[in-house]
Design a protein that fits this description.
Length: about 110
């Protein structure tokens, strides 16, 4: 999709996958929101990246995810995880706020 690959085997994407005891990347201080330039001049879409460099494609390039999917990113364990509070409440609130599609933003 738009040049990004979703090849990670360690970060699950299924929203309904068993998440008990798992880490939500969105609740980690290293999960950062970044703009990605879109086709129209000055417009952009929102992406999330792991500032700790944990999200990688199979060939080693950094992988980013679409912002609207960020609440689905969870991982069994991560030695760089730094939580920003209670994950359950945070993810619940985040899901209410996230856009439902990959929205285009213009300045
Ligand atoms: S450091 Fe680990 S828990 Fe935090 S965003 Fe990166 S992969 Fe997720």
């Amino acid at each position: 999709m738009e040049g990004y690959e979703y090849l990670s085997q360690s970060v699950e994407t299924a929203e309904d996958a068993g998440t008990a005891g798992r880490i939500f990347c969105a609740n980690c201080i290293h999960c950062k929101l970044v703009p990605a330039p879109a086709d129209a001049e000055g417009s952009y879409r929102l992406r999330v990246r792991c500032e700790a460099g944990k999200w990688r494609k199979k060939l080693g390039d950094e992988k980013v995810y679409k912002y609207f999917t960020v609440a689905r990113r969870n991982i069994e364990s991560c030695d760089s995880y730094e939580d920003m509070g209670d994950a359950v409440e945070f993810i619940k609130d985040l899901r209410k706020l996230l856009p439902s599609t990959d929205e285009l933003y213009t300045p």
